[in-house]
Every structure is written in structure tokens, then in C-alpha cells.
Amino acid sequence: MKKKEGIVKMKRWLNILLIFCLAGSSLTAFSVQAQAETKVLSYEEYGRVAMRKTMEKYPDAQITDYLHVGKKRKTTTSIETFKLTLKEKDKTFQVFVFVEYNEKTKKVVKVTFEKAG
Q1: Total domain count for the chain?
Q2: Has UniProt tagged this entry with the keyword Signal (predicted)?
Q3: Among 15, 30, 46, 92, which one is most buried in terms of CB atoms within 10 A?
């Protein structure tokens, strides 16, 4: 009789342990997903600025490709770099767009362009 009670208690503890393990792994997966979404959103706003300013500078061109190259931190500002591929009539070319913004206020300080190649 005591052997059966011991087995029942052990099964309960194993079930409780399994529940905690599953709950913990779910929370970890949620945390990783939230961090990934935050990372994407950190430059998304400046990507829209880069595309809008590019369309203003090249009104007859269409943006056919968009790439976030990276972020460079300075003392009080940061620069998000984007590489855009444009098509104007039968000509395709690429432009690097540098969006510099204030780290604290998140406001754009300046946008500069550099034609690739």
C-alpha cells in the first residue's frame, strides 16, 4: 500500500514539474518574440522617413527594394542607414539614405543621400 502512495506522490510531483517547465518555456518564447518586434520597430519609423525623403528627391523614380543596413551611434545622435534601389524609366540605381536623429527626443536632425556605385 505504501508503495502505491509513493508512486502517486511521485507522479503528482512530476506533473507539477512538467507544468512549470512548460509555463517557463512559453514565457521565454513570448519574451524573445517581444524583443524581436521591438528591434524591428526601432528603425521602422526612420525607414519610412528615408523612403518619403527619397521620393521627394527622386519624384520620377519608383522604390523597388529596401534594405536596413544598420545603425551607428554618435554622442547625442544616431544614424540609421538604408540602401534603396530605385527605377527611373529604364535606369536602375541604388541610393544610401542616412537618417540622423536625436537619441533622446527621437526627432530627425537631418537626412543625407549618397548614390551607390
Answers
A1: 1
A2: yes
A3: 46
